[in-house]
């Protein structure tokens, strides 16, 4: 990767953060651990820095020593923030995912800094938001300062993912593996549930799916279906086999026919390799993917969640 004058150490990059700032953290598999580690190392000199995130996977923000230094204002409660949210060190904003970009764009939750985890720039200078576009696109569009860790292991994804490197105020080299969620074994009970739910899915349906054993079990029983489409908030490894078998074609979708549409992806390296530079997959802003006005335009929408 060609070096640029804005390449700095992580320690130097996070000096952009000042006491009292509101800092967005790229989430899910794209959690920017290199930058977060450097920022946490500065905690003694920082006061009342508000961290805003949807999910920080692989990085624990529950540390009691953050008191007075970092306040976790979470837009979704997961294990990595639950203790903080249930204490004086954090809070939770109950909000639909589709409404979060509006909080940034309308200055209801104005952002001083965005910490991102992106792919290497292409020959035109564009990096990709990789595995997580969801609310990160809106954060990148509205934050006063953008700091990014650039990682050759981050997939280059298509859709609302591209950001020109000239828009980034400071960036660092990162080579850490993208966080993986390895699918577990599906129990006999979950297999029965999956088989039953799969029997309710019609050919040419448009699927939304969550994460977990039951949605994965359903997918294993859809191999004889025809022309399924995908318009979902997220997807994981279970979708690949159906796509490769020709079960998922998206041929009858009204919105983005032939494309797998999502806002973020999390799973094993297998799914990250699948989405890398794959034009059949579009990762789009969640204000769009999760809009009921958009969703209802597709045929036979079927939601599969646990």
**What is the distance, rounded to the nearest whole angstrom, between the alpha carbons of the first and last residues?**
42 Å
Low-confidence runs? none
**Category by helix and strand content:** alpha/beta
Q: What global shape is seen? A: globular
Number of strands: 17
Spatial strand sequence of the major β-sheet? 4-3-2-1-5-7-10
Largest sheet: 7 strands, parallel
The helix/strand order is: HEHEEHEHEEHEEEEHEHEEHEEHEHHE
* Overall average residue pLDDT: 94
Percent strand equals 15-25%
Brief rundown of the structure:
With 306 residues, the chain is an alpha/beta fold. The protein has 11 helices and 17 strands.
How does this model look, in words?
Helix 6 crosses helix 7 and helix 7 packs parallel to helix 8. Strands 4-3-2-1-5-7-10 form a 7-stranded parallel beta sheet, with helices on both faces. A 3-stranded parallel beta sheet has the order 8-16-14, with no helix packed on it. Strands 12-11-17 form a 3-stranded parallel beta sheet. Helix 3 links the parallel strand 3 and strand 4 (90-92). The protein has 306 residues and is an alpha/beta fold. The model has no long low-confidence stretch (mean pLDDT 94). The protein is built from 11 helices and 17 strands.
């Amino acid at each position: 990767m060609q070096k640029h004058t804005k390449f700095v150490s992580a320690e130097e990059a996070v000096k952009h953060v000042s006491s009292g700032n509101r800092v967005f953290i790229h989430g899910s598999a794209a959690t920017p651990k290199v930058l977060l580690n450097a920022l946490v190392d500065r905690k003694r000199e920082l006061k009342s820095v508000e961290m805003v995130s949807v999910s920080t996977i692989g990085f624990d923000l529950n540390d009691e020593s953050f008191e007075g230094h970092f306040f976790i204002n979470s837009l979704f409660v997961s294990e990595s923030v639950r203790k903080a949210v249930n204490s004086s060190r954090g809070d939770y904003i109950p909000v639909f995912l589709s409404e979060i970009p509006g909080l940034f764009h309308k200055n209801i939750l104005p952002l001083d800094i965005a910490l991102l985890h992106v792919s290497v720039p292409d020959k035109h200078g564009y990096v990709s938001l990789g595995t997580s576009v969801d609310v990160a696109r809106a954060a990148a569009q509205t934050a006063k300062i953008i700091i990014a860790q650039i990682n050759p292991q981050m997939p280059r994804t298509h859709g609302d993912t591209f950001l020109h490197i000239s828009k980034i105020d400071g960036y660092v080299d990162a080579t850490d593996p993208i966080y993986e969620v390895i699918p577990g074994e599906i129990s006999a009970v979950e297999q029965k549930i999956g088989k039953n739910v799969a029997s309710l899915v019609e050919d040419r349906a448009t699927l939304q799916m969550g994460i977990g054993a039951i949605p994965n079990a359903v997918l294993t029983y859809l191999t004889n279906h025809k022309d399924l489409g995908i318009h979902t908030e997220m997807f994981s490894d279970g979708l690949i086999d159906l796509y490769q078998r020709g079960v998922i074609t998206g041929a009858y979708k009204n919105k983005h026919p032939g494309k797998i549409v999502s806002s973020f992806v999390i799973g094993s390296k297998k799914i990250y390799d699948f989405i890398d530079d794959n034009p059949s997959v579009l990762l789009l802003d969640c204000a769009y993917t999760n809009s009921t006005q958009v969703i209802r335009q597709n045929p036979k929408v079927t939601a599969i969640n646990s």
